[in-house]
Each structure stands twice: as structure tokens, then as C-alpha cells.
Amino acid sequence: MALQLAAIGLGGLGRIQSDVCTDIDGVELVAGADIAPESRESFETEFGVPTYEDYHELLDEHADELDAVNIVTPHTLHFEQTMDCLDAGLHVHLEKPMVTTTADALELIDHARERNLLLQIGYQRHFHPAYREIKRLLENGRIGDVHMVAAHLAQDWIRNVGGTWRTNPELSGGGQLIDSGSHLLDVVLWATDSQPRSVAALTDNWEQAVDVNSALSVELESDQRRITASIGISGDGDSFEEQLSFWGTEGRLAYEDGELLVVENGTRYVTEFEDPDYAKLTGDKLGAFVEAVQNGDPSPVPGEFGLRVTRLTEAAFLSSETGAVIDAASLPRTGAEPTVADVPEADL
User: Edge-to-edge strand order for the sheet containing 225-234?
Assistant: First the structure.
């Protein structure tokens, strides 16, 4: 029996993901929702399904026949939309970033768990062969115990998205750090299987309403080990670039432009990777979501990954705003602004 899927968010990215979904065996697109009439009209023409201005109306009309929903909407809308879909008994694939606050991330995870529903976050690097190999090598101890990470991401983000909802903090919840930067934060935390602890950050807006550049100094914790991380994110680069370096007790690993370098005892080993296109990665992540729903398996990218990234992002924004070093493990906030100095150690 085909998995019955609805789409909330029918803009450019939502359309691409819906198109990919129609190519996945065992998926039937049932309906869509978007506030923009031109998006609804073109979606109906392309996919031949009804659309709605208000996603609540979509749920009222189709929840009984649906299995799952794919949400690709402005970031600050994610929490309410996902909660409503879970309440309707639907599995949810939620585009990154998961949400904009740690409290909301925790509530969504609990809500999905209580209802025995799948919640998957759209971090496609989990399905990228190069990043999967990085994860495998670090897990297997190829460079020993990781103690230092340096990561950098830059793209011509502000020129491409300036004037859109992504630069409106009421809809985006932040700028490049919470947008494309979310992918980089996820890779660092996922590859090292770590949680964010001490976070010191600086951001600049370049006369925008949201952050364009960010510099983070972070202490991560993995298996009771501490890892020092330096993360730089720029929304004013010439083109997209991403660099990752990991230092371990027995070597070093670095990745850039499809080249994975491992250095052991002075010997360099290089593996070349062809970068999959976005449609391929999107098909892989959505296909994995569909397979997990159909087989009753756990989500391959569960909400806990979104929670880690949200904690780190929220702590970075707090640090930039207050000038304090923030203990990410103390989030969500309950009262005074948390810092490493005045917040006791918290269980991760």
C-alpha cells in the first residue's frame, strides 16, 4: 500500500522535494498547503492534487487518509506546524533547522515519542558518501581520540536571499548561522558523536536584520571526553565552500572539495569523492524516511540530532548577545541567562 504524503510549504525547495517524492516507489502525493496563491496554483498544475492556503484545512480534509507530511516552511513556523501534524497522527519529515529554541525541540521529540510517530530532520549530509566515510573513520578510531575540530562554511548567501523571509528574523529565527550553517553544525556534532557544552560566539549582521558571519569557539563532550571546536560561518562568500579538519591522538583527517585526507604517522592517504547533486541526496533522505515509516523502523535522522544543533545555535546567539560564555547543556533557559560560570554541570 502506498504511503500517503502531504506537503506543507510549496515554494522552490518544497516543490523540488515534492517532485523527488513522486519518484520514490510506494509514495503517493495527496495534497499541499502554502500561503502563496502562485505556489498553490503551480503545484496543483504540476502534481494534480488539491492545495490549501491554510495547512489546518489540509489536515481537516485529509488527515484520515494521510500517513506522513513533509514540511518545508520558514523556520519559526516549524514548531506549531509539526505539533499539529503529530497531533493528527502523522509522521513528519521536517526540513532543517528543526526549530529555533531548545525548549521547542525537546517538546517535539517528546510529542513524537508519546505518539509513536517518526520525526526526521532534513540533514542530507547524513546520506552523503564523503560525510558518511568521515563518520565511519572517526567511529573506528582511525585517527585515535578526536580532541580538536576546525570547520568552515561560506557561500554568497546574503546576495541570494536578501529581502526574502530568510532575512526576516520573525520568520527565520536568525541568519546564516541557523540557515546553511545548521548543516555544518550538524556535521561536526554527528561526526564526533558529541554534545555542545561551553559556547562563546561572535556574530555580525553587516547592516542586515540577521547575522551574516559567525565565529564560534565550542567545547564539545563525547564519551566523557572534551573536544575543542572552532567553527566559522560566512554568508558573504564568493561561492559555496566547506572545510572540515579533525585532529586525533593518532592522526588527522580533513575534507574539502571532494578530497578526504587522512594523515597517519606522517603518511598521507587521499580518497576522492564525487559530490552527489541535491536531487540525489534529497531522494536518499526522503527515501530513508519513507522506508522507516513503512517498515516501522527508527528515524535515520531523529529529532535528537536537531536538538543538538538547536542547543548549539541558541547558545551561540545568547553568547553573541550577552558577551558571556554559555553552557549549552543548561538550555532551555529557566530564569536568568545561563553561563558556564553560574550554571552547574547538567546531564546531557
Answer: 267-272, 259-264, 251-256, 241-248, 146-154, 225-234, 213-222, 195-204, 326-327
